[in-house]
Amino acid sequence: MFQSQRLCGWIMNMNTDHETSDSGGSDEGDRRAELSTPAVGRLSLYYRELHRLLASGETSTNSRDLGAMVNVSPAVVRRDLSSIGSIGRRGVGYDVAILAERIGAVLGSGVQWKAVLIGVGSLGNALLRYRGFERLGFSLAAAFDTDPAKYGHEVGGTTVRSLDDLEEVLATAKPELAILAVPSEQASQVATRVLAGGIQGILNFAPTTLRVPPGTAIINVDLASELQQLAFRIQNR
Ligand SMILES: NC(=O)c1ccc[n+]([C@@H]2O[C@H](COP(=O)([O-])OP(=O)(O)OC[C@H]3O[C@@H](n4cnc5c(N)ncnc54)[C@H](O)[C@@H]3O)[C@@H](O)[C@H]2O)c1
Q1: Contacts 24+ apart (CB under 8 A), 122-126
Q2: Which residues form the CoA-binding domain (predicted)?
């Protein structure tokens, strides 16, 4: 789900919790806590590109090439990577496998995250069918809807359940994340329920500001707003 700078464009509602929650005073945790949201977004993009390089058999890269792949300057790449303790060697650059592992450790890849999806309409269907989440360590534990006609249907390997089962599933499967793909007017109510059930972070696709306690880790995804920003950029360049 990551295009150039997509993550950076996502609106964080108050999102440092997720980045700082497991800092635990370690060096790694301290570094994570210091990373800005745009820097985390860029690291995720470097991570994606490094895995593409690994898949094509490349063993080394440098800040210029990596920057070109994600559309940022070599200086920004060097700063981002040195902030997580990865220093390239002059004339040699970065070892692709080591750098991917380093970024993965900082981003929490390798940790398996369980997510639930609420709202299996057009968008929810597409998300359930998308295989890219698993590659990054995210598995979908369950999907819920309020439309009885959808109960029991399997979409992308996940069976759609009634929203009535939500609390029971949250208590037993203990997922950490919830993806909301419900109509705007339902979103805050659903968010309140998943948070009460132990969910730690919400990826919200509904174009609304969720009414949730301050400090809740939320990422809002709004493609229409991004298109608007793109149009603005084109008009004002
Ligand atoms: N962020 C984006 O870029 C983006 C893109 C497309 C859609 N959206 C938003 O995502 C949401 C879903 O869009 P869609 O096109 O899939 O809509 P849709 O109408 O096709 O699907 C909504 C689904 O949610 C279910 N639902 C309704 N209330 C529910 C509840 N309380 N609990 C669980 N399920 C419930 C409905 O039965 C339906 O299956 C909307 O809020 C839409 O505006 C966002």
Answers
A1: 123/181, 123/205, 124/155, 124/181, 125/155, 125/156
A2: 108-209
